[in-house]
Each structure stands twice: as C-alpha cells, then as structure tokens.
Amino acid sequence: MNILNRKSHRYLAFKITLLIFLTTLLVPVLAFVFTGIEDSRAVAAEVYDDLALKAVRNNYNLYQGGKAVDGAYGFGAYDAYVLTQAGANLNTWVYDGTSFKDNVLNLIATTIANKDTENASSAKRVAYEYITAKRWGVEANTLTELLNILKAKQLASGDGSFDQNPYSDMSAFEALGRAGVIGEIDTAGAIAYILGEQDDATGKWCDFLSTAQAVRALTYLKNYSGDQAADVQSAIDKGVNWIQNQQQEDGSFTVSSVWGEFTFWDDKVIDTAEAIITLDLLGIDPATWISEASKSPVDYMKEKALNQDGTFGDYGTSLDNTMALETYLILGGNVAEDTALGISVNPSGAEIIVGDEQQYTAKVCKFDGNEEDVSQLTDWSIDNTDVATVNNSGLVTGVGVGDTVVTATYQSVSGSANVSVTGSVGNSGNNNQQGIIVPIKVIGKNKEILFEGDVTLKESKEWGVTAMGALHATGLSYTEDGGFVNSIAGQANSGMSGWMYKVNNSVPSVLASDKTVNEGDRIIWWYSTDPNSSGPAWDSLVKGNSATDNPAILEEYNNQVTDLQNKIAGGEITPSDAVEETIKIMNNVKNELASPETSVTEAGKTVRDLMEKIIASLIENKNATAVQAAAVLKPVVNDGVKIVLARPDGVDVAGELKNSLASQVRDIITKAGTISSAQLKVFGSDSTTTVSLPANILEQQLEQLSRAQRELSDILSGDRLQEIAVLARTPVQQLEVDLAGVAGQKANTELVVADDVARNLRESELKLAVRVSDGFTIVLSGTERADRQTVFTGHKPVMLAARDTDGLLDLIASGLFSQNEPASSAAEGYVLSVSQLDSAKADKLVRDANANSSSHLTLRPVGKAYTVTVKDLINKEVVNSLAEPLELEMSCRGLTEDPEITGIYRYQDGKFTYVGAKPDKTREMISAKTITGGTFTLLEYDKQFTDLAGHWAEKDIRVLSARHIVSGATPATFAPGQTATRAQCAALLVRALGIPKSNAGHTFTDVSQSAWYAGDVAAAVKAGIIKGTSAGTFSPDKGISRAELAVMISRVLESKTGREVSDLNKVLAKYTDAGQIPDWAKEWIALAVESGIVNGRTADTIVPKGMVNRAEVAVIIGRLLEHIE
Q1: CA 41 to CA 34: how far, in whole Å?
Q2: In this entry, which stretches build a coiled coil (predicted)?
Q3: Domain range for 169
Q4: Distance between CA atoms of residues 753 and 823, nearest Å
Q5: pTM, two decimal places
Q6: 290 and 363 in one domain?
C-alpha cells in the first residue's frame, strides 16, 4: 500500500470515529511566545491577573487532589511549561511525597527508556518534554536524546512527518519552532508534509487545533522555505482566514463535528486560546478581530471563559486551566509571588469528647513555594455549631455529639479538617472502660459447636466492643482481611459458603469489626452455605451436640463422588462415561437420602456436594458440553434433590439445596452460551497467535444453548422447582468468547470474527462478551464503531478484528480494510488494554476506600480491580471518550453478602466515582456502561443515616443511596418525614432511570434555567414523565401529592413495560376515598396500586391529596426499579 493510500485510509478512519474527534479536544497545543499584542496587554491588567491566578489555583487544587502527572489523562509536560512560565515553583507542589516537577522528570525518563519499544511516546509528548526540560535547564544529554528521538521518527516516517498523524505532528513541529531548534530536523520534509495535509479548498488542516498549530509551525519554518516561501505564506494566509471564519458572536472560536445524529462542539476556551496564541505570534492584536456582535476573543476570555463554579471552558479540565493561563499571560496577566495557592489545616481530623478542646493550625502554600503559618490571620468557621465551636485562632471546643468540619479561609482559599465529638466517658451507656459481658456461640462447618460461653469485652482490647472483639475473646484461631473474616478454627470460606455472624437474631449489614455490641447481646458466628440464610436460632444450639447425625452411612458415596470428580478433572474419564457413573451413584444413594435414619441436613449436604463437585468439573472440562453437564444434573435432581425436598423435614434444607441447584443451572447455561477456546481455530506466526471464529460457530452455539435450555427445563419440572425452571427458560441476551485458554500462547493473540458470524450476531440482537478473566468481562454491543479492538490480558495483547466484505457490518468493524488484507494490517480503531491491578496498587485501593469512609459511610472493595485503558491505535494517544459505551461486567459471586449496595466504581487519584450498578441476580454479575477507561472495582457503599435506625424505609433508602439515586439532607441524616417537592421527585426519577439532563424541553414559566433542577425537569418532560399544569407552570417547590407521584411513576411503568391497568374501578373499589382522586389521575393511580408500587395509607383509604415525604418517595422509586430492571 503506497503512502497516498495510507493517508486516505487514515483520513477515512478519522472521519468515522468519534473517539478521534474527542481526542483532539484534549490535544494540548504549545505556544511559547509571550510577545506582541501591546494594545490588549494594556487593558484590564488587574482582571487578567485575577483570572490567571484562578487558573493556577485550579491546577494546584487538582494536583493536591491526586490528579496524576502521567502525560495522558492527567497533567503533562505542557502544563508544567506554562506554570513555570507563569512563575510557579513546581518543586514545592508536592502530593503523595512527590513534587510536580519530579513527576514530569520521571515522564521524560520513561520517554527515553521506551523510545525503541511498542510503548514509545508520541512526537507531541516528546516535543513538549523537550521544551520543558530546556526551560528548566536540564542537562544537555537529556535534551539531545529527546531531539534524537524526534529525528529518528521523522526519518522512519519517510514523508517528513513524525508519527504520520497530523494531530500529533503539528504540535511537535510548533514546539520545536518555539524552542528554536526546528532547524535541527528535515525542514524541507516538514514543510512538504504540512503543506500536503492542508485542505486546499478551505485552508484548514484536520481540525481547529491542528490548523492553529500548523500556521504557527509554518511561521517558524518560513526561514527554511527557500523557493517555497510563497507557498508557505499562502498556506499561512489561508489557515488564518479559515480560523477567522470560525469566530462566534461572543468573540470566541469553536467548530463542530457531526457524528450520526449528534453534533459535538470543541471547547471554546481551548480554541479561543489557540487563536490568540496564533495571532500573538503573527503580531496581530486579537482585540481587532471583531464579531458581528462587536465582540473580540479578548472580550470572551475576559468575560465568559470563567464559569460560575470557578472552572474554565466547557469541560473544566486541567487543559482548560493551562490554556486559559497561557492566554492571560499573553494578554498581560501576572501572578504575584506571595499569592496563596492553597491552605492546609492540621490535624486533618480529630476526635474529642463533649467539653474538650482541640487546637487546629493553618499553613498556606504560596505561589513562589514559600509556606507560612496563618493560624492567627485566617478566618475560622465551623459547619455545625451544635456539635462544636471554633475561636479566631483555630481552637475547637466540643459542645454536642456528632461530626462536623472546621474550615480556615485566607486570601480566598480554604482548607478544612474533620471534627468528631463523642459523649464523655462517664456518660457512655456501655461503660466500655470497665468492660461488658456478652454470650457467644461459634458453629462450625458441620454444625458442630466450636465455642459456647460468656466473654468480656473492653474498648482497650483487640477489636474493642464489637462482634469481632467477641470472636477474638473466644480464643479460637481466625484469619481476617480488613475486618472480613476468612476462616475460624481452620475452617476457611469457599465459594458461596463462609462465615457469617448475627447479633440478637439479626444479621447486621456492616462488618463485624464495625458492629458495636452492648451488655448481654447474644452473638452467633456460624459457617453458612447460604448467603441469604438468617442462621441458627440461639435456643436450638445445645452445647455438646452437633446439628448433624453420624454421616458415616453416606461416607462411601461421598468418596465415590470425589473419585469421579478427580477423574473428570484429570481427563481419565469421558464426559459420556461420567454421566453413566453419576446415574449409578444416584441409584445406590437415593434410598439412603430418603431414609429417616439419615438426617435431612446430611442428606441435603450429600446432594449439594455431588452437584457442586461433578457439575463444576464438567463445566471446567474443555471437552465436555453444556448438554452433557445437564445430562449429569438429571439423575442428581430426580434421585437426589426431589427426594430430599419431598421428605417431611425437607423444608429445613430447601433453601440451601435450591440455591445450590440454581447455581448449577446458571453455570450450565453460561457454558452453553460460551464459545470456548477448544472451539476456536488457532494458527499464526512465531510472535502472534491468530484465533478465528468459524463461520458456522454462531449457529452451533445457539443450537447447543437451545438444547441445553430444553434439557434443563424438562429436568426441573415439578411444583417444587418451578422458580428454578424459570432460569432455564429465560432468553439469553449475549454469547461469550473465552480468551483465557489462548491468551497465554504467544505474545500477541488475534481474534478474527468472520463476517457472517458478526452479521448474524447483530441480526439476532445478541451481544458478544469477551471474558478477560473469571471476574471481568467486556461486552461489545451491535453499535460498536471501531475497526479493531485489542484486549490485553496482563501484559499480553489479545487483538479483536472483524471483517465485512459487503460494508454492511457495524458490530465491531466498519469495513475499512479490504477482504484480502491480513487482519494485522487493519490498524485503525482503538485499543482496549485490560489488566488486573497488582497487589501493591490493590492494597492502596483498600486503604483509600477506608480513607474515604466515615462514621456514616463504609466503603468496602469487593473482589479484584481491573484497569481498562482506551488508546487510539494509530498514534497510541489515550482516548478520553468513546462514541459508544463499553459495558463492563464484574462478578460478585461469593464476594459480597450485600449485592444490593454493591456497584462498579472508577478508582482514580485515591477517589471512587460511581459508574453504575445493574444487577443480574441470575448470573450474580453487576454491570455498568462507561465511555471512558480507568481502573474499575466493585465497591460496597453502605450509608448509615442516624435518623433511619429501625425506620420502616431504612433498607430501601440504604439501597437507593448505594445506587446514588437519593442522598441525605445532611451527611448524617436523611430527614425521612420531610415533605418532598415536585422538583425533587422529578430529579430523583431522572436520576433513577439514568436519563441525561436536558438543556431544553419545557416551557414552564416558573422553572428558571439557572435552577438546580432545570435540566432534570426538562429531561422529565422530554421523557413524558411530567406535563405541568394547564397554566403552563410546574410549581417546582410545591409539595408533591400521592396522586401526582403515582401519575409520574405509572407513566414510567407503562413506557418501560407496556403494562396497563386491568380493571380501574375494581382496583379502586376498596378505597372509601377513591372519589377524591382527580379524573386525570385515576387510571395512573390504579396502575400503580395494581402493580404493587403504591399502597393505600390504610387498608381502605388511598389519600390521593396527601403529601408524600422523602421516605415514601424513596421506597416507591425502589419498587418501580424492581419492576422495570
């Protein structure tokens, strides 16, 4: 393929991929000339000073908040260059023990170390690091190495470029020009390349940023243009003219790009900054570029660049801050050396008792790097004066039990610290200093009593006065991890089975280490095989007896099961023979299972062990099919499960037995829908393993899936197993490709999807789930628009490509590469790299979760964390956003006892951001969609509100809080009895349904566009949830009635499920006040009542005009989600 064809091919990819467009929004552009524009500098210098300071403080706060210096998502050398130009001392910007400057120097070292590897930095990054290193006076050897990297890139390209990517190349050329070393490269090749990339018709390059950069690069190259001087000047003039034509009425600059039905706009601050930087280099006063509304770019940067929340631009990123800062410096802004950047309050948190005092101090970090104690100069304040007070020197006094925050403010910057006030020791109800006595029993795996007796707990002892402290006091050996018990007396957790505890016959929702107990509380620890079990009753446990009879009678059969399991695992027996062996075992054991001489507990355990051992072995066996696993399950169910459940005492083990059976059914269905490595065609070169999905694989897999489901449905017939039979009949929505078996074969593994396979997948509306590991899956939907996707398992990449010779496929590929072209040459698209977080980083994640927890919020990581990085395959730049979301699935099986409060979170810079939580109870998976990469983990979010303890709505609110649908009135309280407003309900529904806020969609005269709920109301109107009044108003601050809420809820229910009320009059007949329901609301209220979402206030009243409180709204929304999810 010649260079011209490669160039056309690349441009086509750029035009059809939104991710490339989004990447350009974040491409930093360098300009280093702070000269010229004398007219604009003289205007409003104080305004520019203030704006420049705000930009610096924004970036300082981002860094102190943990934003990484990584040259990708976080800060890079460009930010450091501009901050240094402004006068910042980056040696004193320290976070987590490392300065901003040292972090950038580490980036430079990494660039040099990786220059000849697949992780080599882009030309843009190399050039930015060069000019930054030169600005800092870094040793000459480092500068030479960086410049040589760029020279080698240009020589290798063969067309005068560095990366054959104008988005990166223009930045590099411009940076070298400003650094005064552009003459060190092949200038003739550079000029030819830049001129060749310009659109002759419009004068633009790829986008606004590359156009501005190209104009400046050519300006630096004019001295080397020779007989091409006229062509260079003409290109500059065309580019400048195109830039000017993009000016908006408010004086700013921006351009749009269209993707399908969506239109996306550049960040105005970044584009406007680029225009001003370019005009500065050309010696043109930007104040002379006036829009039709008589506004210049200078006006825009002075009046509109700063947002109300203190951020800059449309996205408020660090790049917005940096570009704004550089522009204000050009316009004459200045940041004074002694200006305060940030303030730290010490200690960061303290616990005191009522009446006690704690001295806090405040230290300010200044722009020039100096620090100063300003404790006596700052303004001190306290959030809740009912908890504590603070004087003008930072002395805090506890006045009431609770948590609050103390804040110090100096020169418009603030810092804060936590204050926790407890009751005095003398007022402690538990008298924990003297100790308390609690009875405790510990029940082992075989229902044997490991410990029974009273123990004494003291605050000063290990784990204090908690349920964990009680376990410690028994003297039994145990292991734990962050307060989570892994084993007791050598009996370790395994799969869904493990240790649980209860206090006073209630299973708490917190870790045992966080569960405070009182004098006389009864504590039971027991080994559970059912996470939903409420555990044994206190009085049923008699010391000296176990809960099982002598199991010797079944020992022979258990040994046979273990022997069969080992044979299957070792490949010593075929799957068909395993079916016959299972039938023999069940024929021999079924009479023992039915015998009253065998305890029902032991009978149930025998059947569970048989199912779990043999089925699990077949599931893991690559040579066994799902249909064969179902064939094994059949005699186990007929001669085992059904016999035990039919016993008079079968109800005692029904829960555990059915849960185990359901788990096996789910596993068989999953196997039936999984394309295993044994079904793949494998071939390739020394370095790459190519894996192909055969053309007929989809039909084969669907047939196996259908057959397995039919077999399971027949096996599970009967009244006692109907709820499990439903699992077998539930339609499967996706197929899986298991890459675990092939990913380790070679350094690179490539999966090629035949065109008919991908097309059939799309037509059947199924999804393709790529299983990276047992706990992490990436789901690709039929709307993905990348030509190639690469999934890395550990450090070994697994390439995914797709072929479509007809140009009809948009599942994974968009048909940009030809039928005869090898998959490895189809290089456009993006790369997904997936890796499990290493142990050190995982440990830090746990520590950060603890640090983000509080007395009212517990964050507990669940399972493993995975890092997903999305990069452009051409220039290896990180892609900040994808056109279509990726769906992430993470397994919660056996990891959490509280899946309802568990969600997927993005972990970055020590903080956790909620991504989503769509639970799949059948598969025990939690999924969420994301358009960005990052590190993802499952996290239990357990919010405890002090005014909800024992409240009827406590559980519902806890779940909705974990899904970030509802929040408290304060950090510690929910105010459940407070009347909810119409605006609040609209916002909650929009949030619960995941509907994006809208800037338009309503004409209510009483909803201001600046109101916090304006976007929610507009979205709710657009979705048909609310309609307002006949007078064209919404009454957002008015309390919402039961009738109004029911109407909102039912509209959602109808649109999502199509459900309608069966008999309006019959449903409402039981309510004596049904006549008070407005005609417009009757049908909707009846639907909500019939669906079980809304109940009457009493058995015979609906009270339609009654106001709804916050607790009622939360519970009703929770019930709605159960119906539609």
Answers
A1: 11
A2: none
A3: 3-330
A4: 10
A5: 0.44
A6: no
